């Protein structure tokens, strides 16, 4: 197939959903598909470094205009949730408006069979990808998730109003910019996401989980005996925002740090970084809870191989890529029984805490970490089960990409545009080199 992959941010060096288009691109190219990319110029140098020259030549970029810059400056004056829900969405819409024109030109120029838009992953996000001259497939999407009932107060009145306004506004905007309504196919992660789709869609809805992990890149570490004198180490990797639960995690770790032989590694940055630094100082955890900031992919993989348990206390997590990377390396998981951790992990590899109250989460995390710290054998058995669960449940990128390719081919065949040429085995293997990660 001749595929046009459209996403604003495509990068192995950023985080979150920016990785998704890269992983699909890598897998599609490895499968011998003819893929072109359209994204924002902010990732130009990342892609130049990470792609072979012939693949980089297949990328087109859209630039920011004065309106996007103005919206960005205005958004910085509001709480981050309002900035995310209102201003960042407006910026994405303006960007997509310009991307649509480029996409239409690329469909004609390269005789594209199907356009694939894997991001943004939010079910309510507006898509401008329609009327391009080729069928459009959007997803896998996730979202439609609220905070657990006991934590709804975390969103103040301004944020709650913004959420309600954004959801109401999206229903109107989907009529004005009907990319999702006119898409040939929509891919959702689960029934919750299906329910969050706008009314009036015409295309077929497929269910494919949104997150996955590269099981070849994230290699399981060897099982080794740890000296009794070595501390049990826990690791968190995510954006430092309130709904990721990092405040609760630091509070939960404090009893372990004061009573003995445990370490907590905090990887990432965000709005709460300095507040978490102060919390660590205030609770006397300096030297036991370590702030690493944002680190590169290779160093993070090394850290996972050196630590014992992955902790994800997120209260509004639809996916779980970072958690799945840890599971692939062979780490057991401690998380919240809500959203991504509950969907992507399993009882034999994860301890999940019920989010019935703030204190219940803190106490539950403390108890789970203490249990892990007390039993090396439990950590080893659950870590081995974590990797096994990913393999058996089909959570590797190779399986995920094949499922999505099936949806793309169905959409292309249904439109009558797909004219894929039969290839020999050698042609399929040499048609396009795989994406290379810069080392």
Summarize the structure.
The chain is an alpha/beta fold and 439 residues long. It has helices at residues 19-30, 44-50, 53-56, 66-75, 80-110, 157-176, 179-182, 191-196, 246-259, 273-282, 297-306, 321-329, 340-344, 358-374, 376-392, 397-415, 425-430; strands at residues 2-6, 34-40, 59-62, 114-117, 136-141, 185-188, 204-207, 232-237, 262-267, 289-293, 309-312, 333-336, 350-353.
Q: Secondary structure elements and their pairing?
A:
Layout lengths: L1 E5 L12 H12 L3 E7 L3 H7 L2 H4 L2 E4 L3 H10 L4 H31 L3 E4 L18 E6 L15 H20 L2 H4 L2 E4 L2 H6 L7 E4 L24 E6 L8 H14 L2 E6 L5 H10 L6 E5 L3 H10 L2 E4 L8 H9 L3 E4 L3 H5 L5 E4 L4 H17 L1 H17 L4 H19 L9 H6 L9
Parallel strand pairs: 1-2, 1-4, 2-3, 4-5, 5-6, 6-7, 8-9, 8-11, 9-10, 11-12, 12-13
Helix pairs in contact: 1-16, 4-5, 5-6, 9-14, 12-15
